[in-house]
């Protein structure tokens, strides 16, 4: 079935960000990502997306995982085994591709299934604009499946925004439908019962069409450069609203934080 974990898909939808204090601030914009089953990633070349090669739209394994161009599936399975998470089924990566050779993924999601197709873990790969990366591994300690809409929690350990400290925790919620993907991340800084930040990326999934690069360039044009431009523009708006600026601390000694 189109959109199942065994098929590569294009997910098109919306990115949303809403800040509640000390100044209310919100934005949303159209976005897309690729949904890539790692065991069949080579099949996306049929749509015109190049794998580990230059192209108008391309996907490079060195942009994720070990960052050395090695197999992403092997890297992910090694990480899961080390963390004693049993995921024998497909691992599906949701990420932006390179467009015109450039990419920046604020967050990519690795959805890890068991042999029966249930989701047993989600790996959130977070990048900041300082060239640093951190991994949040979300999995139940007792090994049970993660359900749609179920809340998972992880301690915040990594500096992302200069307008938030490295304190508090995240609440993650997902929808893993074959025809739709939703990831919601709420950030609680410990000062209130309501989140300081509410963010989400959501979209409908469809089979990769042929000549996909031309379709993406026509619709999104300078999308990946726009991601960086929007991050800095929103930062300017927060500065003008006099939201306190937080200096970047040293990155955490450990590259992975476990949540559940």
Quick recap:
With 260 residues, the chain is α+β, with helices and mostly antiparallel strands.
Defining key terms:
36% strand, 15% helix, three-stranded mixed β-sheet, 260 residues
Structure description:
With 260 residues, this protein is an alpha+beta fold. The protein is built from three helices and 14 strands. The chain has an eleven-stranded mixed sheet, with no helix packed on it. A three-stranded mixed sheet has the order 3-4-6. The mean pLDDT is 91.
Radius of gyration in whole Å, from Cα?
A: 18 Å
Percent of residues in helices? 10-25%
Query: What is the molecular shape?
Result: globular
If strands are numbered along the chain, what order do they take across the biggest sheet?
10-11-12-13-1-2-5-7-8-9-14
Mean pLDDT: 91
| Share in β-strands | 35-45%
Question: What's the structural blueprint in terms of helices and strands?
Answer:
Layout: E1 9-19, E2 25-37, E3 50-51, E4 57-59, H1 72-82, E5 91-95, E6 98-99, E7 107-113, E8 119-127, E9 133-138, E10 152-155, E11 169-175, E12 180-188, E13 197-207, H2 212-220, H3 223-240, E14 256-259
Parallel strand pairs: 3-4, 9-14
Antiparallel strand pairs: 1-2, 1-13, 2-5, 4-6, 5-7, 7-8, 8-9, 10-11, 11-12, 12-13
């Amino acid at each position: 079935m189109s959109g199942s974990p065994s098929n590569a898909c294009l997910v098109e939808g919306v990115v949303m960000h809403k800040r509640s204090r000390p100044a209310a601030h919100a934005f949303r914009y159209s976005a897309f990502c690729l949904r890539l089953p790692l065991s069949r990633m080579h099949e996306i070349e049929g749509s015109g997306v190049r794998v580990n090669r230059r192209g108008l739209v391309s996907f490079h394994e060195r942009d994720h995982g070990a960052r050395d161009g090695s197999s992403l599936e092997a890297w992910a399975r090694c990480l899961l085994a080390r963390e004693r998470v049993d995921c024998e089924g497909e691992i599906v990566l949701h990420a932006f591709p390179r467009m015109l050779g450039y990419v920046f993924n604020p967050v990519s999601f690795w959805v890890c299934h068991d042999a029966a197709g249930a989701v047993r873990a989600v790996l959130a790969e977070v990048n900041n604009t300082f060239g640093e990366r951190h991994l949040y591994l979300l999995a139940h300690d007792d090994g049970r499946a993660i359900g749609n809409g179920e809340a998972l929690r992880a301690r915040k350990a990594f500096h992302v925004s200069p307008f938030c400290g490295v304190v508090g925790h995240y609440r993650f919620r997902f929808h893993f439908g074959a025809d739709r993907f939703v990831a919601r991340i709420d950030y609680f800084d410990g000062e209130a019962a309501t989140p300081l930040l509410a963010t989400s990326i959501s979209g409908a999934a469809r089979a990769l069409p042929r000549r996909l690069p031309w379709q993406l360039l026509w619709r999104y044009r300078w999308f990946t450069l726009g991601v960086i431009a929007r991050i800095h523009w929103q930062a300017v708006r927060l500065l003008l609203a006099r939201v306190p600026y937080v200096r970047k601390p040293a990155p955490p000694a450990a590259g992975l934080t476990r949540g559940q």
